[in-house]
Write a structure and sequence with these properties.
Structural class of chain B: alpha+beta
Number of domains of chain B: 2
Strand content of chain A: 5-15%
Number of helices of chain B: 16
CATH architecture of the largest domain in chain A: 3-Layer(aba) Sandwich
CATH superfamily of the largest domain in chain B: Cytochrome-c3 Hydrogenase, chain B
Radius of gyration of chain A: 19 Å
Radius of gyration of chain B: 22 Å
Shape of chain A: globular
Oligomer: heterodimer
CATH class of the largest domain in chain A: Alpha Beta
Largest interface: A-B, 71 and 75 residues
Number of strands of chain A: 10
Number of helices of chain A: 9
Chain lengths: ~250, ~500
């Protein structure tokens, strides 16, 4: 018993004060990309060629955050002359076309559906469906329940049954073998319901693009309300998205 | 004298030097090695022009390879040697080769075979998984079944668990995976060079470094571009950070599963701190973007090194104190001990690897037996337990957490100089073969790479340690109360996506 108290004392209070203050993230973290429009075309081409995800739109000089896995190859090649990844983790969007960006993202709150805020602003229960990703997105959703993020303090919880939930959070590129289970889970959620797509795989197929076993974009089979990019999205990206969209 | 050829971990081999045996000799020699305590590292089929071939990499205290022409059907090796069980089923699924007499010939991931041959399982792939397959049935009075998944109650990966129970006691657990199948191996074979590292990182996100190292070492062997010492040290640190984050997370979750909440909360948070140390080095909490063929993309600058050092100094006592809290609690021990026992004989029979194997008396650790990166210079101690229960699986992690912290601290003491590599194109040596092994946190990860005469990837084979260990979990559950399933499941904590590919 003494050991329990001693540890409790040592651990102290660990919950971050987000959204009041942004917790510091280490400098090498790659968040929202900023694209320089004055970059020489030759450099843009070189970055686009090297991009393993083909996420660079050469004509518009924009990055598709849905395809991007934030590996930083383009930043390394252009040494920041074309692309620079900032420490800004607030990168979720309400519309898929907003994912194609040069660094200026519209305010998520302005684009969220107002009736969602009214319905779910005080209590939001979500059912997570893992559909063929690499389990990193799941892991960084799971940590939202740890004391540092403490998602429950905002009235948002992950629940066991779709019948008890207000929507689904999908991760992974929806494999052929997981499609029916996903659609059945969606159907089991009572209306009105939300669909949240988390991670590059779910948004576009991500690293598995081109495989006949997967679906290239959840929005091809379900109406998606909230797009959270990243590989995986940082827990703070997820937290920002949920708070800004529903609160 | 055995016909298999001795090879080294990560050694480039001209494909013509792989002993090509008649199938009967291949089978006999393989079984001879296995009879003397050998284990399967790789066993797969690959097309070579119009021919289809089989290749096996086995291990004792050495690595050995041999191949043969693949017969359309052949007498199953599993009949006499269980570690081939899943490998033979996988080969049947991927290439339509039938192992006659296989004790349980069922599909693995549920997909049509690669060469459009007649389906061994009689599936058309128009129905949903599991297709043409009746689950294993136990009959009798008072027998009941519990079906769980593929969508589980928590935020975890999909898989289907079918328990055959009498009362609360589990007689048999059947684990059906395949829901996460993305066609990873096929993508490797068709993909551009720049996509290889990305695919390796996303086989199993919690084992990003383990799989990335296998891929990088394979490519390095076939390009001749070796990483410098600094890069090897950084990769070693990254692999140990991955081990730490996962082991600590597992112990927290085990604590939660026996309703002892303080360590569950503390380790949940501390696991995040270790993930953040990976982010400190490479900008991603799972180490994605760090390892590339030829080296690493990020250096250990003095600033990063000192932050890492300082954070570890803060975290180490916290970790030790929470470990003490967990392992000295009599209620925890009462639940951990004697729960889900896998005897050393069963573990050996199944060929378990990693912490699950070490908990059941199999000391095998790639870091010690076939060291890569900087491990040859570290002197990894032998670590095994013999009780094979949840307690032993937790205790192995306890030891490894202490080891990993010391390893990292010993490596960041002095400056680590390295040149970073930028992702670039590479040309692989033609007609070559390489197999790589690394001890990731779940155990032996292995990749095998074969090239054709133009240096194109002919076959890319991935094996996650979970491929060996899922049957260990099924074994642990026999005659155990069904309410102990979550605890046992977490004590193995196997990968669904790493298995499903």
């Amino acid at each position: 018993m003494f050991s329990v108290f001693k540890n409790r004392f040592e651990q102290g209070y660990r919950t971050c004060s987000y959204p009041k203050e942004k917790p510091p993230v280490f400098g090498r973290y790659r968040g929202k990309p900023e694209v320089r429009q004055d970059a020489p075309p030759e450099l843009v081409e070189r970055c686009a060629d090297a991009c393993p995800q083909d996420a660079i739109n050469v004509g518009q000089k924009k990055i598709d955050m849905g395809r991007c896995i934030f590996c930083g190859t383009c930043e390394q090649i252009s040494q920041g002359e074309f692309v620079r990844f900032t420490g800004d983790f607030e990168i979720a969007t309400a519309q898929k076309e907003h994912l194609l960006t040069a660094g200026d993202l519209p305010d998520l709150a302005q684009h969220s559906k107002q009736h969602f805020k009214r319905l779910f602003g005080r209590s939001l229960q979500l059912r997570q469906v893992s559909a063929a990703g690499c389990n990193a997105c799941e892991a960084d959703l799971n940590v939202l329940a740890t004391p540092f993020f403490d998602l429950g303090r905002f009235g948002i919880n992950f629940v066991a049954s779709p019948r008890h939930s207000d929507g689904i959070v999908v991760t992974g590129p929806v494999s052929r073998n997981m499609k029916t289970a996903l659609l059945q889970t969606y159907e089991a959620v009572p209306d009105p319901k939300v669909v949240i797509a988390v991670g590059s795989c779910t948004l576009t197929g991500g690293p598995f693009t081109g495989s006949p076993e997967i679906t290239e974009g959840l929005d091809k089979i379900l109406p998606v309300d909230l797009f959270i990019p990243g590989c995986p999205p940082h827990p703070l990206t997820n937290l920002h998205a949920l708070l800004r969209f529903f609160k | 004298m055995n016909a298999f050829l001795n090879i080294s971990n990560g050694e480039k081999l001209d494909r013509r030097k792989i002993p090509h045996l008649a199938f009967a000799d291949f089978r006999e020699n393989a079984l001879e090695i296995m009879g003397k305590g050998g284990k399967v590292v790789q066993f797969f089929a690959y097309p070579d022009g119009p021919a289809l071939k089989l290749l096996a990499v086995l291990r004792t205290d050495r690595l050995m390879v041999a191949g043969c022409d693949a017969p359309e059907s052949y007498p199953s090796l599993t009949q006499t040697c269980e570690p081939f069980h899943l490998f033979e089923r996988e080969t049947a699924e991927q290439f339509g080769l039938r192992p006659e007499g296989h004790p349980w010939l069922k599909m693995v991931r549920y997909h049509a075979n690669y060469r459009k041959a007649k389906d061994v399982f009689g599936n058309q792939y128009k129905e949903d998984i599991p297709g043409n397959y009746p689950y294993y049935q136990v009959e009798g009075n008072e027998i009941h079944e519990v079906a769980v998944g593929p969508v589980h109650a928590g935020v975890i990966e999909p898989g289907h668990f079918r328990f055959n129970c009498i009362g609360e006691k589990v007689l048999h657990l059947e684990i059906q995976l395949g829901y996460q199948h993305r066609g990873v191996e096929q993508l490797f074979q068709g993909g551009q060079a720049k996509r290889l590292p990305i695919l390796a990182e996303n086989i199993a996100g919690d084992t990003t470094i383990g799989h990335s190292l296998c891929m990088a070492q394979a490519v390095e062997a076939l390009t001749g571009v070796q990483p410098d010492k600094g890069a090897r040290i950084i990769r070693t640190i990254a692999l140990e950070l991955e081990r730490l984050a996962n082991h600590i997370g597992d112990l927290g979750a085990l604590s939660g599963d026996v309703a002892f909440l303080p360590p569950a909360s503390y380790f949940g948070r501390i696991r995040g701190d270790f993930l953040n140390l990976s982010l400190l080095i490479c900008g991603n909490r799972f180490g994605k973007g760090l390892v590339r063929p030829g080296g690493v993309r990020f250096t250990l600058s003095d600033e990063v090194r000192s932050t890492l050092d300082q954070r570890l100094k803060e975290l180490k006592p916290q970790v030790e104190h929470v470990l003490e809290l967990l392992f000295l609690a009599s209620t925890v021990r009462a639940r951990f001990e004697d729960c889900g026992r896998v005897s050393p004989a069963d573990a050996d029979h199944l060929g378990l690897v990693g912490p699950a194997g070490r908990a059941s008396g199999l000391a095998y650790d790639v870091r010690r037996c076939f060291p890569t990166e900087h491990y040859g210079e570290l002197g990894i101690p032998e670590n095994k337990k013999t009780t094979g229960d949840v307690y032993a699986r937790a205790r192995v992690r306890y030891d490894e957490i202490h080891q990993s912290i010391s390893i990292i601290q010993s490596l960041i003491g002095s400056p680590v100089e390295t040149k970073t590599v930028t992702a670039s194109d590479f040309n692989l040596a033609p007609s070559s073969f390489v197999v790589t092994l690394n001890e990731a946190w779940r155990g032996e990860v292995s990749h095998a790479l074969l090239t054709d005469q133009d240096g194109k990837i002919l076959r890319y084979k991935v094996k996650d340690p979970s491929f060996h260990n899922w049957n260990g979990l099924a074994m642990a559950l026999r005659n155990t109360g069904i309410s102990d399933f979550p605890l046992n499941n977490k004590s193995f904590n196997l990968s669904y996506c790493g298995f499903d590919l």
